[in-house]
Amino acid sequence: MSQLVRRERRRPNAEINVVPYIDVMLVLLVIFMITAPLITAGIDVELPSAHAEPISPDETTPFVVGVKADESFHMDIGSRQFRDMTLEELMSVIAKEQQNYPNSPIMIKGDRNVPYGTIVELMDQLRQQFGVENVGLMTNPL
């Protein structure tokens, strides 16, 4: 007597195995967590030192205008950054941003080696073009 063996047909498995994707995601997360604090944003500017009080956190986000030793300008507004601009480009960026943040103070972060005339010219342009009266100079604490 012969036995009849009934064979079942296998159906293909249509499920996606997501475990490798989760592993890759966790590895990337660890890499970003380790490297994020090492990345420093900003331009190195050697500020002069002076006795001054820090800005209170209650105020609106200031525009931080930086002047490097080579007299190029950059600007930070919160997390947005504008780099290596001329004075004319800086003024056009400030004009656009003043519409969104009309009462924001402007802080000037000038390098110690920048000629005094460049800072005065910047302050004069801010006053003449935009009527900005709330301008501060940033320093390092003593």
CATH fold assignment of the domain at 63-137 = Nucleotidyltransferase, domain 5
Question: What overall geometry do the principal axes of the alpha carbons give?
Answer: elongated
| CATH level-1 class of the domain at 63-137 | Alpha Beta
For the report, how would you describe the main beta sheet? 5 strands, mixed
Helix content: 25-40%
**Assigned CATH architecture of the domain at 63-137:** 2-Layer Sandwich
Question: What is the mean pLDDT?
Answer: 81
How is this structure best described in words?
The relative contact order is 0.17. α2 packs across α3. By secondary structure, the protein is α/β, with parallel strands linked by helices. The chain is built from three helices and five strands, in the order αβββαβαβ. The termini are far apart. Its main location: membrane. It is a single-pass membrane protein. Keywords: Cell cycle, Cell division, Cell inner membrane, Cell membrane, Membrane, Transmembrane, Transmembrane helix.
